[in-house]
Specification:
Structural class of chain A: mainly alpha
Shape of chain B: globular
Family (chain A): Belongs to the MreD family.
Helix content of chain A: over 70%
CATH superfamily of the largest domain in chain B: Rod shape-determining protein MreC, domain 2
CATH class of the largest domain in chain B: Mainly Beta
Structural class of chain B: alpha+beta
CATH architecture of the largest domain in chain B: Beta Barrel
Order of helices and strands of chain A: HHHHHHHH
Membrane topology (chain A): Multi-pass membrane protein
Organism (chain A): Lentilactobacillus diolivorans DSM 14421
Distance between the termini of chain A: 15 Å
Oligomer: heterodimer
Largest interface: A-B, 49 and 60 residues
Keywords (chain A): Cell membrane, Cell shape, Membrane, Transmembrane, Transmembrane helix
Shape of chain A: globular
Distance between the termini of chain B: 68 Å
Number of helices of chain A: 8
Subcellular location (chain A): Cell membrane
């Protein structure tokens, strides 16, 4: 019988692929995603983390640690501004985990929790960038042109990948 | 329900906030002062950049496939249009050659060395784009090893798109002119009006609502009109003279009515960049 790849390894490899896909999708579809004045920012990295919160074992996978690691790489490689996502990613993971524990585990509550997670992620990212003068949009502009489109895009991604990734984790539980 | 904010957690949150602000301030300070990020960050970026190519290359390949098919469908129409322009182009090219030679000879006679216009190009491909709505950055696959330095101007297609913000060994970050950050996009540019008068200035901001570069604080009386061409002026350091930036789309008064504000339509499409060249001053 073939030896099975442990779920932790799949999780880590998937995390990095999701991380690179974020940049690649932004680059490939930049004409559509960043069409003025709206910005639809793909956040597959967070999607992968949150789906692991839903289906995987948070303690066994060391989710918060990996969230911090990928956040640090995100800061270093994509933005060049350290200390932003290295804290926001673990915070969002922790928050989503806490809220998800209170809800019945089904698609709708997952959808709701992910909605919350993306909102917190994008808003805190905006606050941090506004603090150092990197983002200069007003809050209303940010809500309409960045937050709303980004939420729409990421919820579509979430709806598409919820069941396949759920199946992946379930097949490794047995 | 567990207690959400126990005192221990509160302490952790505050410590994290302090570290976060510290790191942010530090990285901004480093970016503004030094030419390269610290060696550890550079090393990490190089490794991540290398790994990224494994994912980015096939993705870009798929993209190229789609673009090729789209191009094929437009070919006939484009061919018709281009044919009519070819004759004109050859003429300009020949004239350009002659003028360049003449210019060189005259410079030699006058004993003038390199002027502001001369530059070499380093070509690079775009690996990826920062997934963020305000940091308009792309990452390209040439770095220190190829001779890229900080603040060099980057050209894509017809015109200027941005400057190098961070240089690693094998990749570097390009901040596009569409970045709205306070500390970016300060290019020295000039506009030649219809009457031949030159207006000098710098890019002061970017209007993301309408995709226009804004050149502010102009007190010159020279008359500018829509369609005037904007180029870099070569003043103030690393950026050579004569890189095409865009055309004037609107001239307006600034908020206080004292100076003029010129809205410039960028020549290059800032959202469709695959290959760039970095201009290195001679």
């Amino acid at each position: 019988m073939k030896r099975r790849v442990p779920i932790a390894a799949i999780f880590i490899i998937g995390l990095f692929i999701a991380f690179f896909l974020d940049g690649s999708i932004s680059q490939m579809f930049s004409g559509t995603l960043f069409k003025y004045p709206n910005a639809l920012v793909p956040n597959l990295t967070l999607l992968w983390l949150i789906l692991a919160v839903f289906f995987g074992n948070t303690q066994k996978l060391h989710l918060e640690l990996w969230a911090a690691v990928i956040g640090f790489i995100f800061d270093m490689y994509y933005t060049g501004l350290l200390g932003v996502y290295v804290f926001i990613f673990p915070l969002v993971v922790y928050l989503c985990y806490t809220v998800y524990q209170m809800l019945p585990p089904n698609f709708l509550s997952g959808f709701l929790v992910y909605f919350l997670g993306i909102t917190v992620l994008v808003s805190l990212g905006f606050v941090a960038n506004a603090f150092i003068g990197e983002a200069d949009a007003s809050i209303s502009e940010f809500m309409v042109n960045t937050l709303a489109p980004t939420l729409a895009l990421n919820l579509v991604f979430m709806a598409l990948s919820y069941f396949p990734i759920g199946a992946l984790y379930r097949s490794h539980k047995r | 329900m567990q207690k959400f904010f126990s005192s221990r957690k509160l302490v952790i949150v505050i410590v994290c906030l302090i570290i976060s602000f510290g790191m942010m301030t530090l990285s901004v300070a480093i970016r503004n002062k030094q030419n390269t990020p610290p060696i550890i960050q550079q090393f990490g970026n190089d490794i991540v950049g290398f790994a990224d190519r494994i994912v980015a290359t096939p993705m870009n390949g798929i993209d190229h496939g789609f673009v090729s098919v789209k191009n094929l469908l437009n070919t006939y129409q484009e061919n018709q249009q281009l044919k009519s322009k070819v004759d004109q182009l050859t003429q300009t090219q020949v004239k350009d050659q002659v003028l360049e030679r003449e210019n060189k000879q005259l410079k030699r006679q006058l004993n003038v060395g390199n002027t502001l216009t001369g530059y070499q190009k380093i070509n690079a491909a775009v690996i990826t784009r920062t997934p963020s709505s305000w940091a308009s950055q792309v990452i390209i696959n040439k770095g220190q090893a190829a001779g890229v330095k900080k603040d060099m101007p980057v050209i894509a297609g017809p015109g200027l798109i941005g400057t190098i913000a961070e240089v690693n060994k094998t990749n570097s970050k390009v901040v596009l002119v569409s970045n709205t950050a306070e500390n970016s996009n300060r290019f020295a540019i000039q506009i030649v009006g219809k009457d031949g008068k030159v207006v000098n200035g710098i890019i002061t901001s970017y209007d993301s609502q309408s995709n226009r570069i804004v050149m502010g604080n102009i007190t010159s009386k020279a008359k500018l009109s829509k369609g005037n061409r904007v180029t870099t002026s070569g003043l103030g350091g690393v950026i050579p003279k004569g890189i095409y930036v865009g055309t004037v789309s609107k001239v307006a008064q600034d908020d206080y009515g004292l100076a003029k504000k010129v809205y410039i339509k960028p020549a290059a499409n800032l959202n469709d960049i695959e290959v760039v060249s970095i201009a290195v001053k001679d």
